[in-house]
Write a structure and sequence with these properties.
Length: about 90
């Protein structure tokens, strides 16, 4: 079963191609060629062909996830500080 691509899917693919172009993995001509393929793509598999030979984009961590990690680290440091204070 083929799944049709949405405008949002196309924009995400174009953003990935822009990042790869900025990183020097694609020339401007290659970007232009792939961008025209993205705009003409009707299915997700057609979109996937434009990025198949490129590495996965770096995952940017969720700011909320980072906040939770920092809160846990702060709590651990606070508990260790209180324990040190009680034992001395």
């Amino acid at each position: 079963m083929t799944v049709r691509a949405s405008d949002n899917d196309r924009e995400r693919t174009l953003a990935a191609l822009r990042e790869h172009t900025a990183a020097g993995r694609l020339t401007l001509d290659e970007f232009a060629e792939r961008a025209s393929t993205v705009y003409a793509a009707r299915t997700l598999s057609e979109l996937a062909t434009t990025t198949a030979d490129l590495p996965e984009a770096e995952q940017h961590s969720d700011p909320r996830q980072l906040a939770v990690i920092l809160a846990i680290a702060l709590a651990v440091v606070a508990v260790l500080g209180v324990l040190y204070w009680l034992l001395t």
